[in-house]
Design goal:
alpha/beta; Rossmann fold; 2 domains; five-stranded parallel β-sheet; binds adenosine-5'-diphosphate
Length: about 220
């Protein structure tokens, strides 16, 4: 398979880009979605989370209590490390399971923290695509789609890689700052989609057809 790593800060527009690419036929494996499913009520990671952090880490319906965890993880780096040690292997397994089952002209891994875990991803993907956005627009977008306060949003952004370090590892960049219209975003995504189709065809690593077809 020809593999793209798609990343960008919170609110940069990664999900929107991934949705467009999927509409045009790309396979998408979203590590954030995988993490959410694992930590939803009944999620595969929940028994281990309850054992590690106690019942307070769960909401009454048995999902990860995100507010509780966010507060503790920011206050104590050890808590964040313990949570990551528990989640990363299961997220990694599920990511690889979905990748192995993926079919289509190329595969997009959506990885919010790709740059933070570049050692794991650099050799896993053929190209890294960064959705670039100015911090003010990130805050405005996240504010309008979530109940988070500006300071909570800025705290999350401060814990993520800086804009410049993301751009430093990018093979392809999509500009999605405050002045970018949805049509302009779509046009940039389409240009890259066409380029990746051509590159994937050149490598001959497309996996089309039914599961089980030799790659
Ligand atoms: P991410 O997945 O990187 O966190 P999203 O794709 O969810 O970001 O985008 C954040 C929010 O901003 C969403 O509500 C999305 O619809 C909106 N958005 C993203 N890009 C644009 C754009 N160019 N114009 C208008 N709204 C946008």
């Amino acid at each position: 398979m020809f593999n793209i790593g798609l990343t960008g800060g919170i609110g940069s527009g990664k999900s929107r880009v991934a949705d467009l690419l999927a509409q045009w036929g790309a396979s998408v494996v979203d590590t954030d979605e995988i993490a959410r499913a694992l930590t939803a009520a009944g999620g595969a990671a929940m028994p281990a989370i309850e054992r590690e952090f106690g019942p307070g880490a769960l909401t009454p319906d048995g999902a990860l209590n995100r507010d509780w965890m966010r507060e503790r993880a920011f206050a104590d780096p050890q808590v964040r490390l313990r949570l990551e040690a528990l989640l990363h292997p299961v997220i990694g397994q599920e990511t690889e399971r979905q990748a192995a089952a993926a079919r289509g002209p190329y595969l997009v891994f959506v990885v919010p923290l790709l740059v933070e875990s570049i050692a794991r991803w650099r050799d896993r993907v053929d190209r890294i695509c960064v959705v670039d956005c100015d911090p003010e627009t990130q805050v405005a977008r996240v504010r309008s789609r979530s109940g988070l306060t500006d300071s909570a949003i800025r705290r999350i952004m401060a814990a993520q890689a800086a804009r410049a370090s993301r751009l430093a590892v990018a093979d392809d960049v999509i500009n999605n700052d405050g002045a970018t219209s949805p049509e302009q975003l779509r046009a940039q995504a389409k240009t890259l989609h066409d380029r990746w189709l051509a590159l994937a065809a050149k490598t001959g690593r497309q996996a089309q057809g039914l599961a089980g077809t030799p790659e």
